[in-house]
Amino acid sequence: MNRSTKPNADHIRSWYAATAHTLPNCPTLEESIDADVCVVGGGFTGLAAALTLSRAGYRVALVESRRIGWGASGRNGGQIGSGQRKDMFELESLVSDDDAKRLWSAAQAGKRFLCDLVEHYDIECDLNWGHISAASKPSHADHLHRYCDHLRQKYGYLECDPISRSTMREHIDTSIYFGGLLDRSAGHLHPLNYALGIARAALDHGAQLYERTEAATIEPTGTGHRVVCGSGQVTAKSVLLACNGYLERLHPRLAGKIMPINNYIIATEPLGEQAAQRLIRGNVAVADTRFVVNYYRLSTDTRLLFGGGESYRRRFPADIPSFVRKHMLNVFPQLSDKKIDFGWGGTLAVTLNRMPSVGRVDGDIYYAQGFSGHGVVMAGYCGHLVARAITGTMEDYDLFARLPQPRFPGGTLLRWPGLVAGMLYYSLRDRL
């Protein structure tokens, strides 16, 4: 599959798409319309922003080049993490103590925002709680245990418990880990159904959502911007770019702040309730501490959903199930006789410092991108924060907007060789 292909009519084949709730086909934009805000991108970020703005009475037009939730928001591992992509040890060395505490609080607020949406709009997305960070090396276990103590003592976070190597097998039926951390206030969900649920809520509040409507250019108008989309266009005072890994050439200056990478997931055949619960107790999600992370959880129909492996070229592997299966068998060799029913990939965006890239350029063009694998919580929450900034409430938006946003060396054209070299180096370290 190629990210540069023309828009597809439907979602890619995945377990998520096969179990997705229906959303009415949104029209293609084929006329010139006016709006207060034009949102470009129909994933977590754009949908959350559209919902927040429409609830505040703004006229919102959202344009999505394919289908709502077609990109990473509808394909990811569905894991809900605590904190930011960088842990608090790292953040405390980069920002002030006050900003570190605010970043922790913002991440907690992001989880509450997600929960509030699910509850208020009755979004059926298989929301479950419990997450294990599994140590791939002894030193990683020591770090996770110290981190748990740190969260308890400095941030008053009492929802985590250390797991020793001797008790790890009580949680996950594998012998490869050296301990871990159980976070009872992190978890997992069905990401595509979550995205579709936010879309329904935005529609109910009056937002206009357009699918199969690709933004080609953004032109200044003197009083705002015009987003030109093939046979239609949106003229608006403000624009939010919520394209993430699919931004491409729409805004090259912002594209230089992120790097699109591909990640892959497989779904086994149903394992049966007893076998599934032997594999992962308590229906928790799991992510290990490798640089190229393995992450997995059980589906509602007792499949193992296993994510593993990355690639840095535009095309996906020809055989995704085989590509990911080897990573799954390293963790669970007992699944060697199980069939793989689904295999799919998605494109996410990482930043150089692995923190969200949020801000405003060219007057009233806002952006939120680069969630670096932590987007189930932070993508939607940052979309909400940008929407609030547009309405005049800067709380927490200013916190993220002033974070350093280094560009990848070489810009959009020459960033790939450096990324591949760096990723290969860290992938080698995973194996040592």
List the helices and strands and how they pair.
Elements: H1 15-18, E1 32-40, H2 44-55, E2 60-63, E3 79-80, H3 88-94, H4 97-120, E4 128-134, H5 138-155, E5 160-163, H6 165-168, E6 180-188, H7 191-204, E7 208-210, E8 217-220, E9 225-229, E10 232-241, H8 252-255, E11 258-268, H9 273-279, E12 285-288, E13 295-298, E14 304-311, H10 320-331, E15 340-351, E16 357-361, E17 365-369, H11 375-391, H12 397-401, H13 411-431
Parallel strand pairs: 1-2, 1-10, 2-7, 4-12, 10-17
Antiparallel strand pairs: 3-6, 4-6, 5-6, 8-9, 9-10, 11-14, 11-15, 12-13, 13-14, 16-17
Helix pairs in contact: 2-7, 2-11, 4-11
Name a few traits of the molecule.
nine-stranded mixed β-sheet, alpha/beta, disordered N terminus, 432 residues
Largest sheet report = 9 strands, mixed
Radius of gyration, taken over Cα atoms and rounded to an integer in Å: 21 Å
The helix/strand series, from N terminus to C terminus, equals HEHEEHHEHEHEHEEEEHEHEEEHEEEHHH
Output the number of helix runs: 13
Shape: globular
Q: What is the distance, rounded to the nearest whole angstrom, between the alpha carbons of the first and last residues?
A: 32 Å
Short précis:
The protein is of the alpha/beta class. The protein is built from 13 helices and 17 strands. The N terminus is likely disordered.
Walkthrough of the structure:
By secondary structure, the protein is α/β, with parallel strands linked by helices. Helix content is 34%, strand content 25%. The chain has 13 helices and 17 strands. Strands 3, 4, 5, 6, 11, 12, 13, 14 and 15 form a 9-stranded mixed β-sheet that branches. Helix 2 (44-55) links the parallel strand 1 (32-40) and strand 2 (60-63). Helix 2 runs parallel beside helix 7, helix 2 (44-55) packs parallel to helix 11 and helix 4 packs across helix 11. The longest helix has 24 residues, at 97-120. Mean pLDDT is 92; it is low at 1-9.
